[in-house]
Design a protein that fits this description.
single chain; alpha/beta; Rossmann fold; 5-stranded parallel beta sheet; two-stranded antiparallel sheet; 7 strands; binds thiamine diphosphate
Length: 342
């Protein structure tokens, strides 16, 4: 007999542990299938520019998204399709951005992952390498100054970002100011083709938290249940006023840096190690073992999700591209505010 669980929700309150696992799994599945579709469209020459996917990082990303409330702040990076969906980004926003639709959140100006909706707390990324931490700090500072309490902010990072000055300055600032910031580092063992041995000299990146005086969490990023437990704790700590939290998840990128990269530099020994497990498969096995779902139910969700993605692509393929002669060259925030600067 299958357990009764609450419906998937994206508001940081999935109801029960089993409900949270199920909700997060479905965002993982949606992200994987969406990423697969973008990779296929890229190979078919239907996407101009790069395609960047998060294969192998969905458990961490989904756990991050479901741990947040809609009123929080989230700065995702290029491997965060699952977290974006869990935070509330509709599939069609991603499809419109990748296919250059004028109706997308970036109005066809961005080709892939720099999309967002600042008014909803989903920040459009500037760069992959640590630049977003200080932006999240700024939003949290602004809320503090306005007397808005209770919300937290997440900045996603790769391990490569932890070697940059931007990381140091922003984490130090957040620590001194005790901002409710959670840094979620996906240590996928390669920053593009640079391995961990050329990136940092400590045994575990989570050790860096001690030097900054912030909370520290280390987790197996291939294990959804572990990611959910860790993110729940880290987000809870930040929300309770305990200051910044550094979460480091160990995992492996199961794809290239982008779809243009065959990832031939990845050590085969790592691929065969527990780090190389596919988190989606691990999550599915867990759901079946725990009788939260069965194989038939998993197959139904998969086919429903494929249909949903195909429908979104079919809609967007009929939408107009931006017209440079009719373009309003104002910032996205102005568009949201209804201003029309020429
Ligand atoms: C300031 C800056 N320098 C260089 C780059 C080019 N770049 C983009 S992603 C990347 C590697 C990032 O590695 P990591 O932080 O480990 O994240 P991962 O790609 O593994 O998710 C580099 C060098 C950039 N976007 N911004």
């Amino acid at each position: 007999m299958l357990q009764t669980v609450s419906e998937p929700r994206a508001d940081g309150a999935a109801g029960s542990v089993a409900g949270a696992q199920l909700a997060a799994y479905r965002f993982m599945l949606k992200a994987r299938l969406l990423d697969d579709k973008f990779a296929a469209l890229y190979r078919a020459g239907k996407i101009h520019g790069g395609v960047f996917i998060g294969k192998g990082q969905e458990a961490l990303s989904a756990a991050t998204g479901v741990s947040l409330k809609k009123t929080d702040v989230f700065a995702p990076l290029i491997r965060d399709a699952a977290g974006r969906l869990a935070f509330g980004e509709p599939i069609i926003d991603a499809v419109r951005t990748y296919l250059g639709s004028a109706l997308g959140p970036m109005r066809g100006r961005d080709g892939n992952v720099h999309r967002g909706r600042p008014q909803t707390g989903l920040l459009p990324m500037i760069s992959h390498l640590g630049a977003m931490i200080s932006v999240v700090n700024g939003v949290l500072f602004a809320r503090r100054m306005k007397g808005i309490s209770g919300s937290v902010g997440v900045a996603s990072l790769g391990e490569g970002a932890t070697s940059t000055g931007a990381f140091h300055e922003a984490l130090n600032q957040a620590a001194v100011e005790k901002l409710p910031l959670i840094l979620v580092v996906a240590n996928n063992h390669y920053a593009y083709s640079t391995p961990n041995s050329r990136q940092f000299a400590c045994a575990d990146l989570a050790e860096k938290a001690v030097g900054y005086g912030v909370g520290s969490h280390s987790v197996d990023g291939t294990d959804l249940a572990a990611c959910l437990a860790t993110l729940t704790e880290a987000v809870g700590n930040a929300r309770a006023g305990h200051g910044p939290q550094l979460v480091v998840a160990n995992l492996l990128r199961l794809c290239g840096h982008g779809e243009h990269d065959d990832a031939s530099y990845i050590d085969p020994k790592l691929k065969k190690s527990p780090l190389g497990r596919d988190c989606l498969k691990v999550a599915e096995d867990f759901l079946v073992e725990e009788k939260i779902a069965d194989a038939a139910q998993l197959a139904v969700w998969r086919s429903e999700t494929i249909r949903e993605i195909e429908d979104a692509v079919a809609i967007v393929q009929r939408e107009p591209a931006p017209d440079p002669f009719a373009e309003k060259w104002c910032a996205i925030a102005s568009v949201h505010l209804g201003e029309t600067h020429e």
